[in-house]
Amino acid sequence: EMDVHQTRDGEVVVMHDALLQRTTNGAGLVKTKTYAEIQALDAGFHFQRQSGSFEFRDRGVYVPLLQDVLSAFPTLGLNIELKQLDPPMIESVLRIVEGLPKEQVVLTAGHDQIMHALEQAKPRYPLGLSTAQAKSVLWRAYRGASLEEFRSRALQIPPRYGFLPLISKRLTQAAHAAQIEIHVWTINNANAARRYVRAGVDGIMSDDPGLILKAVC
Fold first, then answer.
1. Which of 52, 67, 56, 75 lies closest to 4 in space, CA to CA?
2. What is the pLDDT along the chain (217 residues), one digit of tens a residue?
């Protein structure tokens, strides 16, 4: 699972934040920098172990291009969230993933406008749901209403919203009846992973995928 932004010169980079300062030694918006400027930054600068050490600082860790990730892991399944609304980046992302098998890619966006633009682009890859669409699916499922509008999409949600559990038998049954997959994030506990698999979720996002694989396979 990865988030992408686009640089000033049109390169698509794998980066969670729109701003550089939380995860690199740079500052400012990704979209205002060229890729050469971003590549020169230290993407390991702020990574701190629980012991307090900054062992990835000054080790040549850099912000990768989406194409770099595809080249390094050509068979990896990719859940790509488009984070940047303006300037638009959908065409750039579709050009990069063009040729990959349909089952290898899910394209998603939390932002409603980006998701609407993705829908209009009609990619051959399955789509996730925007935040508003996800809320609609949850509300409809609990009311017993039809989910056909979102057929063959991926509902990607946290396990809870405040004190309210979101994963339930009613939700999984309603979603699966419409061929909607349920992906839950972010699960870093083996027992929780087993519990959600038993509850019928189709995918788990984790900061420790090795732990989750051992727990559920």
1. 67
2. 999 999 999 999 999 999 999 999 999 999 999 999 999 999 999 999 989 999 999 999 999 999 999 999 999 999 999 999 999 999 999 999 999 999 999 999 999 999 999 999 999 999 999 999 999 999 999 999 999 999 999 999 999 998 899 999 999 999 999 999 999 999 999 999 999 999 999 999 999 999 999 988 8
Among residues 32, 44, 100, the alpha carbon closest in space to that of 69 is found at 100
The phi, psi pair for 127, rounded to 5°, reads: -115, 155
Of 160, 169, 4, residue with least CA distance to 96: 4
| Pick from 124, 115, 50, 51: nearest CA to 88 | 115
d(CA 157, CA 205): 10
Specify the pTM.
0.93
Amino acid residing at 66: L
Return the beta strands (E) in the chain as ranges. Answer: 2-6, 12-14, 78-82, 105-108, 154-157, 160-161, 164-165, 181-184, 203-204
For residue 139, give both structure tokens: 């509300």
